[in-house]
Each structure stands twice: as C-alpha cells, then as structure tokens.
Specification:
CATH topology of chain A: MetI-like fold
CATH superfamily of chain A: MetI-like
CATH class of one domain in chain B: Alpha Beta
Order of helices and strands of chain B: EEEHEEHEHHHHHEHEHEEHH
Shape of chain B: globular
Shape of chain A: elongated
CATH class of chain A: Mainly Alpha
Helix content of chain A: over 70%
Number of strands of chain A: 0
Largest interface: A-B, 17 and 25 residues
CATH architecture of chain A: Orthogonal Bundle
CATH topology of one domain in chain B: Rossmann fold
Order of helices and strands of chain A: HHHHHHHHH
Oligomer: heterodimer
Distance between the termini of chain A: 53 Å
Strand order of the largest sheet of chain B: 6-7-8-3-9-10
Radius of gyration of chain A: 20 Å
Helix content of chain B: 25-40%
Number of helices of chain B: 11
Largest sheet of chain B: 6 strands, mixed
Largest sheet of chain A: none
Number of helices of chain A: 9
Number of strands of chain B: 10
CATH architecture of one domain in chain B: 3-Layer(aba) Sandwich
Strand content of chain B: 15-25%
C-alpha cells in the first residue's frame, strides 16, 4: 500500500486527527504561556524565586517525554488515561523555553533606558509593564515559537496514553510495520510544525523594536 | 552668622559630609566627605575624570543611590526621608543619547512624566508642542517619529525636552552631549546655555570636558578620586593651583592647539 492510497482512503480520519492534535497543542500552549510569562515577569525582581523556577522548568526538559507521560498517569486529579494528562505533560515541557526567554528578554533591555526610566520616577511595576515588557516582546515570542514547535512534536507521543491526535497513526503504523500509516501521522505533524514556525516567526519580526 | 543654617530657601541641594561606598567597604569609597551647597537657579558643573565619582554624586541627588555616610538635602529635606518616586518626578534627568524609549514616539517620550502624573491629554499635547519648539524641533515633523529615526543631536534635544516636561525646578544632566560630534555638540552647548539662562532652573551638569564646564557652569566643582578638590566660578577656576585643576587646564591648551 502506497502512502498516497492510504491518505486518500483515510482523508477524514487524518483530518480529524490533525484537528485533535492542534487542539491539544493550542490548549497546552495557552496554559504554558499563562503560567510562564507572568512567572518570568515575577522572577526578574526576585532572585531566589528565579533559581527555583528556572530549575523546576529545566527538570521537566530532562525527563524523556514518553516517561513523563507514564509518570503522570498514576497521579490523582491531573493523571489518568486521556487528554488531560497529555496536556499537563505538554505544558510542563513548554514551560522552560517560554520562561527562559521571558526572563532573558526582560533582563536584556538596555541599562541606560532602565536608568532613565527609574530617574524619571517610574515605579518598578511601571518599568516592567511599560518598558521591559514591550521591549522584550519579540524575544518572548521567540520562546513561544520554540515551545510550540516542540509541543507539536511531543504531542504525537500523547497518543501512547490515549490522548488521540496524529500520534495515533504513528503508533499504529509502528505496530503494523507500515510506512504509509506512520507517514499519515508524521507528515501532517511536520507540516503543522513548519506552518506554526513560519507564522510565529512573522509575528516575532513584526514585534521587534529596533 | 552660621553659614550652614543661613538662608535655607536659597539652597536647592546640599551635600553634608557625604560618603558613598558599595559592599560595605569604606576603604574603597567612590565619594568621600563631600560637602557642597548648590544655590537655587544656579548651574553647577561637576567636572572630573572617568571614575572620579561625579555620576555617583548626581545619582545621590535623586536617590538613585543613598549616602553611606552624611546626608543629601533636596529642597531642605534629606533624600532618605523623601518618597523616591515623588522626589524623582520633580527632578529632570538627561543622560547621554537621551535614554529615550525606543518603543515610544517622540511625543510619548516627552509626555512620559506628565502621563505618569495623569495630566489630561489636551494639556499633555500642548505641553509636548511647546517643549519641542523650545528645543528647536518642529512638532508637526517630529511628534510621531521614533527615536531611531532621529540624529544623535535631535535625540539629545528630545532628551532635554523630556526632562523639562513636568516643569521640574531641578535638572540633572549626565554628560548629555558626550556622544555627539564636535560641531553638533558646540551647537547644542550654545543653545543649551541660552536656554538655561532663560529658564532659571537649578542645574547640576556632569562632564569630563573642561571647555564644556567653562562654557556652561556658573561654578565648577572638580572631583578627583571621590573628593571635591576645587570649587570656583570659571574665571577663578583657571587660576587655581591644585594639580588636578592644572591637569585639566593643560588639556585645554593642548586641545586648543589641535582645534586651531
């Protein structure tokens, strides 16, 4: 069976899996951004929290993704088989690139601009929200872009714990020793990743302040 | 009469035996035992080599730094007793390259302090136009541009306009013209000196350029290794026989030779 014939005959199934995959990624990214960006803003001024937060986020990056999905299954409330567990794992994975870029971006603002801001009588919060954040936006977005591409890839493994998505085809294809079935999952996942990368790259350039 | 308590109203800024050091190492003080009064409406130039402590002295005035020993009085109050945010909003601050916000338009940059002080938008707009004209820039042409679209000299003009926005009685300037080419610098120095005479603000101006000090200062305070070693009006300053004064006047002669 050639991949093309398999694609033709399973069109709607592949389309549905792509949608499920995208949903998984979008939900996970929304949570990851909602956690990592404010946390990154917080650790600019709090040195002790910074070490803890960056350390915590780094730890998850070191756990192999399949193992992380496995570890989460027995945990009450967030665990179990299915989409919720998968989203938790994806969020944990996406945290580090976003958190690190948020922190680095906020911290890389030209010191003379920060000095001027302080000398003009801006409060720490005003400096953070009106000076650091707008100037760091493109770097933060670069982190979000990296995290999105990673998440699209890692989300294929979520099928192992019954979360659906494009990984379903990949796992099925591996079991059937069928390249065509594997490609039915892998090609749309790769296209999603490329498309997300291009789109977010565009946005990143637009937000850049010289 | 005791000179220290006399006529406090005429004193805008007073350093009383101020020493500043970091990391609790008094032996490596950046500023040592400086006592100095700056009169209301006076332009005082802090002159010194790099690392002589002049910028530190400036930052002690608006409480960007707090004295390790002694006190700095602004408007008769020790800076340590003032709310730093309120204190700074009443003190204009200009640095090299202007320190303009790259993501703000020129108008937004100038409007910074009035916006923080929640002026209404009509008053802010009028003030921005007035200030742009004051520093010699056409509001119609410059208001909506961004700092990167301006030349160094124009940016510096905007920096001065921004510092004056909320009409502060006090201006602190840290080598504002240092990054400019000699021609633009001379042009801005001339205009600035005329402007300050007209506005009657108290100005503390930091520079390492003796010519600039002589041109702009009503008095020149020379700092050397964190200590105040000379304090005099320009004419008298040239006649002082302190070795550091002579080091500066000597480079005046040599650069004269180069320029002519």
């Amino acid at each position: 069976m050639t991949p093309w014939i398999f694609f033709e005959s399973h069109r709607s199934e592949i389309f549905q899996a792509t949608l499920d995959h995208l949903t998984l990624v979008v939900i996970a990214m929304a949570f990851a951004i909602a956690i990592a960006v404010p946390l990154g803003m917080l650790i600019v001024e709090h040195r002790h929290l910074r070490t803890i937060a960056l350390g915590f986020a780094s730890v998850f990056q070191t756990i192999p993704s399949l193992a992380l999905f496995g570890f989460l299954i027995p945990i009450p409330f967030i665990g179990g088989i299915g989409r919720r567990t998968a989203i938790v794992a994806l969020v944990l994975y996406a945290l580090l690139p976003i958190l690190r870029n948020t922190y680095v971006g906020l911290n890389s603002v030209d010191p003379t601009i920060l000095e001027a801001a302080e000398a003009m009588g801006m409060t720490t919060t005003q400096i953070l929200l009106r000076v650091r954040l707008p100037l760091a936006l493109s770097i933060i977005l670069a982190g979000i872009r990296t995290a999105t591409v990673i998440t699209i890839g890692v989300a294929t493994i979520a099928a192992a714990i019954g979360a659906g998505g494009l990984g379903t085809f990949i796992f099925r294809g591996v079991a059937m020793v069928s390249d065509a079935v594997i490609l039915a999952g892998a090609i749309p996942a790769a296209l999603l990743a490329i498309f997300a990368d291009l789109l977010l790259g565009q946005l990143e350039r637009r937000l850049k302040v010289v | 009469m005791n000179a220290k308590t006399a006529a406090p109203l005429d004193v805008a800024i007073e350093f009383r035996d101020v020493t500043y050091y970091i990391n609790d190492i008094p032996a490596r003080a950046i500023v040592s035992g400086v006592s100095l009064s700056i009169a209301r409406g006076e332009t005082l130039v802090l002159l010194g080599r790099s690392g002589s402590g002049k910028t530190t002295l400036l930052k002690l005035i608006n409480r960007m730094l707090i004295p390790s020993e002694g006190q700095v009085f602004v408007g008769g109050r020790p800076t340590t007793k003032s709310n730093p945010i309120r204190l700074r909003r009443g003190i204009g601050y200009v640095i090299q390259e202007g320190g303009l916000f790259p993501h703000f338009t020129i108008a937004e940059n100038i409007a910074l302090v009035p916006t923080l002080e929640k002026w209404d938008s009509a008053r802010i707009a009028a003030r921005v136009d007035e200030l742009l004209r004051l520093v010699g820039l056409d509001p119609a042409e410059f208001s909506n541009r961004y700092p990167r679209e301006l030349s160094g000299g124009q940016r510096q003009r905007v920096g001065v306009a921004r510092a004056l926005a909320a009409d502060p009685p006090l201006l602190l300037m840290d080598e504002p013209f240092g990054a400019l080419d000699p021609v633009t610098r001379a042009e801005l120095q001339r205009e600035f000196s005329a402007l300050t005479r007209r506005l009657g603000r108290t100005i503390v101006f930091v520079t390492h350029d003796i010519r600039e000090a002589l041109l702009l200062g009503q008095r020149i305070a020379l700092l050397h290794a964190g200590r105040l070693v000379a304090l005099a009006p320009p004419d008298d300053f040239l006649r002082l026989d302190h070795h550091e004064v002579q080091a500066f006047t000597a480079c005046l002669d040599s650069s004269d030779g180069v320029a002519s």
